[in-house]
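>> Question from a student workshop board

For tomorrow's exercise we were told to take the sequence and the ligand below, predict the bound structure, and bring the output to class. My setup keeps failing. Could a helper post the expected result so I can at least see what it should look like? The ligand is iron/sulfur cluster.
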Amino acid sequence: MSEELIQTLASWPRERILDGVQRATLDEVDAALAKEERTPRDLLALFSPAAVARLEPMAREAQRLTRQHFGRTIGLYAPLYLSNICGADCVYCGYAVRSRNRERRLNLTPEQIRRECEALAAHGYQSVLLLTGEAPKAAPLDYIAEGVRIAREYFPSVAIEVYSLDYDDYKRLCAQGLDGVTIYMETYDREVYQRVHLLGDKRDYEYRLGAIERAGHAGVRRLSIGALLGLTDWRVDGFYLALHALYLQRVCWKSAVSVSFPRLLHVPERFQVPEMVSDREMVQLMLALRLVLPEAGFNLSTREAPGLRDRLIPLGVTMMSAGSSTRPGGYQTYGDETLEQFAIEDNRSPAEIAEVIRAQGYDPVWKDFDQAFDRAVSG
Ligand code: SF4
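>> Workshop helper replied:
Here is what the output should look like for this input. Compare the format with yours to find the bug.
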């Protein structure tokens, strides 16, 4: 794990970020908007209360940059939960070991993984994200590798969102055909991090922080990071997220880096969202990040409601999940019998979402949306 990233994050304590945000003036917002290339300091202005008066020009600039770097395409993918067994205790999550949820917990068998893959492939998907909880004993590396191997028979593009792994583990999964890894830091604020992660290896902040970089060095071509919005002030985690993405773009330059904006909306009974993020704040966050990270992919999941998702399409989104189930076997094998991780807001079918994307003048892309990037780095 690079000391450089730790030092960079440490050089921006949350008070410094919030102070910079509060002090920013409209002139500084306009100066940030007028620049060709922006720095993290510009982000403070773009996150500020003053910038609320400039959301329209920020939206225009975000749209321009997104079209310049990604054209008019939106990649579609679906999550496929291999397992809902988890030994960690993240207080905001329905899979947490102490969440008291009584619905079924299981690993899909290889035959069931095939059945789920067939159901998704029949919708036209060519890109899938395989997920497990943090259960290295119940869902060990061998099991994940088998899942990747099977999924590759159906999809040209297979990514995972599982617990943090070692460099050699990622290398092994790449040999099975893995091309993407998603790991959300959830929150970059160490104190909040320790407060919401009560049990399991995930409590090791630095091991988790370094995982995505290990994946990149091991040859994973698509790296996706994110902060779980609502755990702390959105401007604090948004700022750290940008620092992390900029760092990865530099040290893992052979990989495409993307960011996600999972927002806490539905949480288990025992937990209350400490810093609820409004739609307007979510929009400001995305626009500001697009202005500082013009080349990063932006993922938007079905956690968000259809109306907001549709409005965000032209403002910087490059990938969307669609027709999602957040439980193992949810597409074909078990219906709604198994425990889900969280409720989704956008229940429209993949075909309906593709239609909405087309209606806004964009092309839904079912295939490997980073092909152009891959050609550029290997060519
Ligand atoms: S967030 Fe992940 S590691 Fe934490 S309880 Fe949920 S599934 Fe387990």
